[in-house]
Design the sequence.
């Protein structure tokens, strides 16, 4: 393999969109199966573990007098699993089955106080898990779009440039 | 809904986070699996060393060693001199 070999990436823009929607799907689409499985397990694992540890009430959108819920900007990087939080209208939520009607719905201030009283710092750790999952997926999207960040260095390591010819001694 | 590990010690949250972060970060930098694993292990050790040293400093502050800041400055200077010496030598 030559040092200037290019990594063939199938439809980078489409793969990047798929990588955002479902972590690992963009790489699966490009035929990079190993990475796809790794990303799916690590990112979705972190997101689900975080949501579960936060009693399913740490991923939501809030933009009102209480202020903006900034962690969502990171959480939305995880893609489709964080998108139900955008549905805030009770009228739309009423269409959903009872079991998932409150999924990723912003808790009331009373519910939030109750969560912190019951679970303490665990809620903060749960939020960190979901945020880190989203932020890591931004790196994954970049990888699907442009390939690994140190591809050139990797190629140089595999085949170092030929050393210059020795000059004959006089 | 009650979380699965409701009374989990806070320290148990660290290993999955470190493993996931180091693996994903390394995989976005390289394509070769050998390099990914090697880089991930090194990155995990960096994270643990950084967190460990922060933990140590906070622990030392909490037990109120006399002249703690002086001790910290002396240790810091010793480290800088050591690095400077090893770089020259």
Sequence:
């Amino acid at each position: 393999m030559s040092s200037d070999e290019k990594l063939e990436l199938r439809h980078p823009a489409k793969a990047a969109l798929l990588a955002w929607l479902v972590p690992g799907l963009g790489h699966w689409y490009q035929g990079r199966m190993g990475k796809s499985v790794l990303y799916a397990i690590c990112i979705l694992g972190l997101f689900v573990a975080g949501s579960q540890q936060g009693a399913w009430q740490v991923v939501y959108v809030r933009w009102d007098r209480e202020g903006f819920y900034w962690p969502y900007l990171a959480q939305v990087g995880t893609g489709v699993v964080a998108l139900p939080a955008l549905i805030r209208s009770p009228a739309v939520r009423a269409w959903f089955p009872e079991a998932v009607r409150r999924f990723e719905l912003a808790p009331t201030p009373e519910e939030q106080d109750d969560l912190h009283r019951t679970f303490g710092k665990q809620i903060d750790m749960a939020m960190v898990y979901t945020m880190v999952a989203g932020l890591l997926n931004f790196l994954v999207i970049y990888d699907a779009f442009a390939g690994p960040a140190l591809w050139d260095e990797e190629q140089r390591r595999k085949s170092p440039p030929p050393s210059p010819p020795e000059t004959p001694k006089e | 809904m009650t979380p699965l590990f409701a009374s989990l010690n806070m320290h148990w949250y660290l290993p999955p986070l470190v493993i996931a972060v180091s693996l994903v970060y390394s995989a976005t930098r390289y394509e070769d699996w050998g390099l990914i694993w090697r880089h991930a292990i090194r990155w995990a050790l960096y994270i643990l060393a950084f967190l460990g040293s922060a933990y140590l400093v906070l622990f030392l502050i909490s037990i109120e060693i006399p002249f703690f800041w002086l001790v910290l400055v002396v240790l810091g200077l010793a480290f800088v001199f050591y690095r400077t010496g090893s770089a020259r030598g």
Observations:
- The radius of gyration of chain B is 19 Å.
- Chain B has three helices and no strands.
- Chain B has a mean pLDDT of 86.
